[in-house]
Amino acid sequence: MQNANGTPETAQRFRQRPLVQEVRDELERMILGGEVEAGERLNEIVLARQMGVSRGPVREAARSLEREGLVRAVANQGVYVRKLSLEDALELYDLRALMAGELCASVAAMPGAHIRADLRDLVDTMDDLIAGDDQDSYFTANLAFHDHIAAVAGLERTRSLYVALGKEVRLFRLRVLNGLASLVVSNAEHRRILAAIEAGDVETARTEGRNHHLNGKRRLLETLNG
Amino acid sequence: MQNANGTPETAQRFRQRPLVQEVRDELERMILGGEVEAGERLNEIVLARQMGVSRGPVREAARSLEREGLVRAVANQGVYVRKLSLEDALELYDLRALMAGELCASVAAMPGAHIRADLRDLVDTMDDLIAGDDQDSYFTANLAFHDHIAAVAGLERTRSLYVALGKEVRLFRLRVLNGLASLVVSNAEHRRILAAIEAGDVETARTEGRNHHLNGKRRLLETLNG
DNA sequence: CGATTGTCGATTGTCAACAATATTCTGTTG
DNA sequence: CAACAGAATATTGTTGACAATCGACAATCG
User: Fold this and answer.
1) What positions does the domain HTH gntR-type occupy (chains A, B) (predicted)?
2) Taking 60 as the threshold, does the pLDDT of residue A3 lie above it?
């Protein structure tokens, strides 16, 4: 296993994570990072050689990645990076919107002032980042906002699906939120979600959470058509 | 393995399916059939010996089963049959209800008289089965009804999730539909779904499809409490 | 010339052996 | 007798080798 931070000895001696986890993360990074193209076949042998492991862990990691829909395996032929059609991406947006709605509704239904405070901090931070034109940081904060909602909603399966679908849709590899205008609109939607959560309005939280993602889908379509 | 795509399977020679597929199906059958208890550890060695294969395919099959949430793997410790808490089961019902709503809505939005005819046949058949007190056949027809909707909805990812969640919830292993009264109620709900689909009423189809599953959740709770 | 068949190289599927890790047992000690 | 340390055992993690299969190209036949 190649080691990004040059400590190969330590990593080998005190390895606690199974190799398959390392390989899995590396493969996921390669796929989501665009180092391997959509539809491309993942050659077990060369991957194993690249990472300095045998084919076993590579195979298991590939099966694990199949779970998240990042790759599809064909018998006697190999695993291919999944290629997302526009219809696939739109369906993923819809599914994700449903999950997000449930997660927001669940958070709105539970007490916990600190949760709301954390969310408010994130939304305020995002406004600052927009003002400073720091789009990369905005994406990070945006991710943190949604992850935080998902983490505290108490719906583990829904959360894991939400996260997995998020990775899956990234296969489509199209940055929808570009331009400050989109960011402003996006964070305004965050505020509406937050307001519903703070008000304990379950149904509104569900609707706003879902609409936020459906708007993302709409922006995707506009980006493609315009 | 179904052959939906154009795989050349002309020869009737018995197909040599990859072993991992056989092992996977066998494990799934054992888990869903209750041959191994929830929370029990799956011993790679004894399973491999039982099935007459080596541990490799067993390991891969286990990882594949993790995809459907039927088992959970712990590093250096093995894979365990997933144990579902009541909260887990309820969450799965909610998720499945959402998927079902989307699938029904999608079918309602598309043309195709033969699809509706097939569904109507199934509903009529189920009424006959109720009249004949053939509960086992009813369960089969019920499954066919929902599978058929999922199959023709044109939402592949939603369908696969719906099916996987269906297997997952079976881990809770509690037959909710017992007694003819429940069957009558259940098929009445089927008719409402069908009516909305035939009318092309997308929103009603979504609501009825979702409610049908939420009612199943309600019946589960009533079974447990009463 | 086109289609079919045979062969070859590359790749995946499977296996059994070895290494690392977790669990159980056992004997000792306070 | 309880608690602990360490060995013994069982199980998972990993590996390299071998078998089965697939795709491509060349040879053969009509």
Assistant:
1) 17-84
2) no
The reply to whether B20 Cβ lies less than 7 angstroms from strand C is yes
Enter the CATH code of domain B19-81. Answer: 1.10.10.10
CA A40 – CA A94 distance, rounded (Å): 26
Q: What is the mean pLDDT of residues B161-170?
A: 95
Structure tokens belonging to residue B224: 């447990």
pLDDT single digits (tens) B72-130: 999 999 999 999 999 999 999 999 999 999 999 999 999 888 889 999 999 999 999 99
How far from chain centre, in Å, is Cα A87? 19
Relative to beta strand B78-81, strand A71-74 is unpaired
Q: Which residue carries 């940055």 as its tokens?
A: A175
Q: What is the CATH number of domain A8-81?
A: 1.10.10.10
Q: Which nucleotides of D are covered by protein (CB under 7 A)?
A: 11-17, 20-23
Longest Cα separation, chain A: 55
Judged by C1' against the alpha carbon of B41, the nearest nucleotide is D11
Higher pLDDT, A115 or A202: A202
Q: Quick one: pLDDT band at residue A177, thresholds 50, 70, 90? A: low
3-state secondary structure chain B: CCCCCCCCCCCCCCCCCCHHHHHHHHHHHHHHCCCCCCCCEECHHHHHHHHCCCHHHHHHHHHHHHHCCCEEEECCCEEEECCCCHHHHHHHHHHHHHHHHHHHHHHHHCCCHHHHHHHHHHHHHHHHHHHCCCHHHHHHHHHHHHHHHHHHCCCHHHHHHHHHHHHHHHHHCCCCCCCHHHHHHHHHHHHHHHHHHHCCCHHHHHHHHHHHHHHHHHHHHHHHHC
Lowest mean pLDDT among B16-20, B158-162, B221-225: B16-20
Please say whether the beta carbons of B18 and A75 come within 8 A.
Answer: yes
B75 sits within 7 Å of strand D by its CB: yes
- The ranges assigned to domains in chain B are 19-81, 86-225
How close A66 comes to chain B (CA, Å)? 8
Name the superfamily (CATH) of residues B86-225: GntR ligand-binding domain-like (1.20.120.530)
Task: Compute the nearest-CA separation of B67 from chain A (Å).
Answer: 5
Q: Minimal Cα distance from A59: which residue of B?
A: B60
